[in-house]
Amino acid sequence: DIQMTQSPSTLSASVGDRVTITCRASQSISSWLAWYQQKPGKAPKLLIYKASTLESGVPSRFSGSGSGTEFTLTISSLQPDDFATYYCQQYNSVFGPGTKVDIK
Amino acid sequence: QVQLQESGPGLVKPSETLSLTCTVSGGSIRHYYWSWIRQPPGKGLEWIGYIYYTGSTNDNPSLKSRVTISVDTSKNQFSLKLSSVTAADTAVYYCARDFRDRSSWYGMDVWGQGTTVTVSS
Fold first, then answer.
1. Is A93 in Cβ contact with B60 (below 8 Å)?
2. How far apart are CA A52 and CA A68, in angstroms?
3. How far is Cα A14 from Cα B78, in angstroms, rounded to an integer?
4. What pLDDT shows up at residue A92?
5. How many CB atoms lie within 10 A of CB A86?
6. Beta strand pairing call for B67-72 and B77-82
7. Chain centre to alpha carbon of residue A42
8. In what order do the strands lie in the sheet with A33-38?
Protein backbone atom coordinates (compact mmCIF):
# COMPACT_ATOMS: atom_id res chain seq x y z
CA ASP A 1 0.00 0.00 0.00
CA ILE A 2 1.16 3.52 -0.80
CA GLN A 3 1.59 5.68 2.30
CA MET A 4 1.46 9.46 2.34
CA THR A 5 3.34 11.83 4.63
CA GLN A 6 3.12 15.59 4.97
CA SER A 7 5.46 18.18 6.43
CA PRO A 8 5.30 20.16 8.50
CA SER A 9 2.39 18.96 10.63
CA THR A 10 1.81 22.52 11.82
CA LEU A 11 2.92 25.77 10.26
CA SER A 12 2.65 29.19 11.86
CA ALA A 13 2.57 32.07 9.41
CA SER A 14 1.45 35.66 8.95
CA VAL A 15 -0.83 37.26 6.40
CA GLY A 16 1.18 37.94 3.28
CA ASP A 17 3.68 35.13 3.85
CA ARG A 18 4.60 32.61 1.17
CA VAL A 19 3.73 29.16 2.51
CA THR A 20 4.89 25.77 1.22
CA ILE A 21 3.60 22.37 2.33
CA THR A 22 5.25 19.14 1.23
CA CYS A 23 3.58 15.79 0.60
CA ARG A 24 5.53 12.61 -0.04
CA ALA A 25 4.34 9.23 -1.33
CA SER A 26 6.05 5.96 -0.37
CA GLN A 27 6.24 5.05 -4.06
CA SER A 28 5.65 6.84 -7.32
CA ILE A 29 2.13 8.05 -7.98
CA SER A 30 3.03 9.92 -11.17
CA SER A 31 0.98 13.15 -10.96
CA TRP A 32 -2.08 11.58 -9.36
CA LEU A 33 -2.24 13.84 -6.34
CA ALA A 34 -4.90 16.19 -5.03
CA TRP A 35 -4.85 18.88 -2.35
CA TYR A 36 -7.75 19.85 -0.09
CA GLN A 37 -8.42 22.66 2.37
CA GLN A 38 -10.52 22.00 5.44
CA LYS A 39 -11.81 24.53 7.95
CA PRO A 40 -13.15 23.53 11.38
CA GLY A 41 -16.61 21.99 11.21
CA LYS A 42 -16.66 22.01 7.41
CA ALA A 43 -16.16 19.47 4.67
CA PRO A 44 -12.88 19.47 2.80
CA LYS A 45 -12.68 21.55 -0.37
CA LEU A 46 -10.76 20.43 -3.45
CA LEU A 47 -8.04 22.92 -4.37
CA ILE A 48 -5.77 21.13 -6.84
CA TYR A 49 -5.86 17.86 -8.77
CA LYS A 50 -3.34 16.10 -10.99
CA ALA A 51 -0.66 17.69 -8.81
CA SER A 52 -0.85 21.12 -10.42
CA THR A 53 -4.30 21.76 -11.94
CA LEU A 54 -6.27 24.39 -10.07
CA GLU A 55 -9.89 23.47 -9.40
CA SER A 56 -12.37 25.94 -10.86
CA GLY A 57 -12.99 28.90 -8.57
CA VAL A 58 -9.86 28.42 -6.45
CA PRO A 59 -7.75 31.60 -6.12
CA SER A 60 -4.59 31.71 -8.18
CA ARG A 61 -2.43 32.28 -5.09
CA PHE A 62 -2.68 28.49 -4.63
CA SER A 63 -0.39 26.37 -6.78
CA GLY A 64 0.81 22.79 -6.80
CA SER A 65 3.84 21.09 -8.22
CA GLY A 66 5.71 17.82 -8.23
CA SER A 67 5.51 14.32 -9.61
CA GLY A 68 6.59 10.85 -8.65
CA THR A 69 6.96 10.85 -4.88
CA GLU A 70 7.37 14.50 -3.86
CA PHE A 71 4.78 17.24 -4.16
CA THR A 72 4.29 20.76 -2.88
CA LEU A 73 1.36 23.06 -2.26
CA THR A 74 2.29 26.74 -2.27
CA ILE A 75 0.23 29.70 -1.16
CA SER A 76 1.97 32.72 -2.67
CA SER A 77 0.57 35.32 -0.25
CA LEU A 78 -1.34 33.96 2.72
CA GLN A 79 -4.75 35.53 3.25
CA PRO A 80 -6.90 35.49 6.41
CA ASP A 81 -9.26 32.97 4.76
CA ASP A 82 -6.39 30.53 4.22
CA PHE A 83 -5.86 29.56 7.86
CA ALA A 84 -7.00 25.96 7.75
CA THR A 85 -5.78 22.38 7.56
CA TYR A 86 -4.49 21.08 4.23
CA TYR A 87 -4.52 17.44 3.13
CA CYS A 88 -2.96 15.71 0.18
CA GLN A 89 -4.54 12.59 -1.31
CA GLN A 90 -3.32 10.08 -3.86
CA TYR A 91 -5.38 8.39 -6.56
CA ASN A 92 -5.90 5.24 -4.51
CA SER A 93 -7.75 7.48 -2.09
CA VAL A 94 -5.25 7.47 0.80
CA PHE A 95 -4.97 10.86 2.49
CA GLY A 96 -1.92 12.44 4.05
CA PRO A 97 -2.08 13.24 7.76
CA GLY A 98 -2.67 16.96 7.21
CA THR A 99 -0.86 20.26 7.78
CA LYS A 100 -2.46 22.88 9.97
CA VAL A 101 -1.69 26.46 8.99
CA ASP A 102 -2.25 28.80 11.91
CA ILE A 103 -1.62 32.40 12.77
CA LYS A 104 1.86 33.32 13.97
CA GLN B 1 -25.02 22.10 -9.33
CA VAL B 2 -24.58 18.69 -7.73
CA GLN B 3 -25.18 18.52 -3.98
CA LEU B 4 -24.75 15.63 -1.56
CA GLN B 5 -26.58 15.02 1.72
CA GLU B 6 -25.75 12.33 4.26
CA SER B 7 -28.47 10.85 6.43
CA GLY B 8 -28.72 8.18 9.11
CA PRO B 9 -28.69 7.57 12.86
CA GLY B 10 -26.37 9.73 14.91
CA LEU B 11 -25.98 7.10 17.63
CA VAL B 12 -25.10 3.45 17.15
CA LYS B 13 -24.50 0.83 19.85
CA PRO B 14 -21.21 -1.08 20.00
CA SER B 15 -21.18 -4.31 17.95
CA GLU B 16 -24.09 -3.11 15.81
CA THR B 17 -24.07 -1.94 12.19
CA LEU B 18 -23.74 1.71 11.21
CA SER B 19 -25.91 2.61 8.21
CA LEU B 20 -25.74 5.85 6.26
CA THR B 21 -27.20 7.05 2.98
CA CYS B 22 -25.98 9.80 0.68
CA THR B 23 -28.54 11.45 -1.58
CA VAL B 24 -27.31 13.07 -4.79
CA SER B 25 -29.30 16.06 -6.02
CA GLY B 26 -28.84 18.42 -8.94
CA GLY B 27 -27.31 15.74 -11.14
CA SER B 28 -27.26 12.06 -11.92
CA ILE B 29 -25.44 9.41 -9.92
CA ARG B 30 -24.67 7.68 -13.20
CA HIS B 31 -21.20 7.68 -14.77
CA TYR B 32 -19.43 8.70 -11.57
CA TYR B 33 -17.64 7.10 -8.62
CA TRP B 34 -18.87 7.93 -5.13
CA SER B 35 -16.86 7.73 -1.92
CA TRP B 36 -17.30 7.58 1.81
CA ILE B 37 -14.71 9.28 4.04
CA ARG B 38 -14.65 9.69 7.79
CA GLN B 39 -12.89 11.89 10.31
CA PRO B 40 -12.61 10.92 13.99
CA PRO B 41 -12.78 13.84 16.42
CA GLY B 42 -9.61 15.93 16.20
CA LYS B 43 -8.01 13.62 13.63
CA GLY B 44 -7.39 13.44 9.90
CA LEU B 45 -9.38 12.10 6.98
CA GLU B 46 -9.74 8.38 6.35
CA TRP B 47 -11.07 7.02 3.08
CA ILE B 48 -13.58 4.22 3.66
CA GLY B 49 -14.43 3.11 0.13
CA TYR B 50 -16.01 3.99 -3.17
CA ILE B 51 -18.63 2.64 -5.54
CA TYR B 52 -19.22 3.12 -9.25
CA TYR B 53 -22.81 3.62 -10.36
CA THR B 54 -22.74 0.14 -11.86
CA GLY B 55 -22.16 -1.30 -8.39
CA SER B 56 -18.44 -2.13 -8.50
CA THR B 57 -16.69 -1.22 -5.28
CA ASN B 58 -13.30 -0.75 -3.66
CA ASP B 59 -12.72 -0.25 0.04
CA ASN B 60 -9.99 0.40 2.58
CA PRO B 61 -8.32 -2.88 3.62
CA SER B 62 -7.69 -1.46 7.10
CA LEU B 63 -11.43 -1.75 7.83
CA LYS B 64 -11.10 -5.51 7.61
CA SER B 65 -14.09 -6.34 5.43
CA ARG B 66 -16.58 -4.58 7.73
CA VAL B 67 -17.64 -2.24 4.90
CA THR B 68 -20.52 -2.66 2.48
CA ILE B 69 -21.23 0.09 -0.04
CA SER B 70 -24.25 -0.09 -2.32
CA VAL B 71 -25.96 2.13 -4.88
CA ASP B 72 -29.58 2.73 -5.85
CA THR B 73 -29.62 4.55 -9.17
CA SER B 74 -33.42 4.81 -9.15
CA LYS B 75 -33.23 6.92 -5.99
CA ASN B 76 -29.96 8.66 -6.88
CA GLN B 77 -28.51 7.38 -3.60
CA PHE B 78 -25.59 5.35 -2.35
CA SER B 79 -25.18 3.83 1.06
CA LEU B 80 -22.63 2.69 3.62
CA LYS B 81 -22.90 -0.13 6.11
CA LEU B 82 -20.12 -0.63 8.66
CA SER B 83 -20.53 -3.71 10.81
CA SER B 84 -19.32 -4.57 14.32
CA VAL B 85 -18.71 -0.97 15.27
CA THR B 86 -16.68 0.13 18.28
CA ALA B 87 -15.96 3.49 19.87
CA ALA B 88 -13.10 3.85 17.38
CA ASP B 89 -15.70 4.22 14.61
CA THR B 90 -17.03 7.43 16.18
CA ALA B 91 -16.47 10.10 13.53
CA VAL B 92 -17.92 12.60 11.13
CA TYR B 93 -18.84 10.65 8.01
CA TYR B 94 -18.72 12.39 4.64
CA CYS B 95 -19.87 11.31 1.22
CA ALA B 96 -18.16 12.73 -1.85
CA ARG B 97 -18.04 12.48 -5.63
CA ASP B 98 -14.80 10.78 -6.63
CA PHE B 99 -14.18 12.16 -10.10
CA ARG B 100 -12.22 9.56 -12.07
CA ASP B 101 -12.37 7.69 -15.33
CA ARG B 102 -10.42 4.81 -16.88
CA SER B 103 -7.30 6.90 -17.42
CA SER B 104 -7.45 9.87 -15.08
CA TRP B 105 -8.33 10.98 -11.57
CA TYR B 106 -9.53 14.46 -10.75
CA GLY B 107 -9.99 14.29 -6.98
CA MET B 108 -13.10 14.45 -4.82
CA ASP B 109 -14.80 17.54 -6.15
CA VAL B 110 -18.20 17.56 -4.42
CA TRP B 111 -18.70 16.78 -0.72
CA GLY B 112 -21.64 16.44 1.60
CA GLN B 113 -21.68 18.50 4.78
CA GLY B 114 -20.93 15.44 6.91
CA THR B 115 -22.88 13.66 9.60
CA THR B 116 -21.66 12.84 13.09
CA VAL B 117 -21.97 9.24 14.22
CA THR B 118 -21.26 8.31 17.81
CA VAL B 119 -20.77 4.72 18.90
CA SER B 120 -21.90 4.33 22.48
CA SER B 121 -24.15 2.17 24.59
1. yes
2. 13
3. 42
4. 82
5. 24
6. antiparallel
7. 16
8. A10-13, A99-103, A85-90, A33-38, A45-49, A53-54
CA distances from B83 to A41, A97, B3, B105 (A): 26, 25, 27, 29
Q: Which chain A residues touch B34 with a CB distance below 8 Å?
A: none
Could you tell me which residues are beta bridge partners of residue A74? A20, A63
Any CB–CB contact under 8 A between B46 and chain A?
Answer: yes
Chain B residues touching residue A95 (CB < 8 angstroms) = 37, 44-47
Q: What is the pLDDT of residues A23-63, one digit of tens each?
A: 999 999 999 999 999 999 999 999 999 999 999 999 999 99
User: Whose CA is closest to A43, among B35, B112, B118, B41?
Assistant: B112
CA atoms within 13 A on the CB side of B13: 2
Looking at residue A10, what is its pLDDT? 97
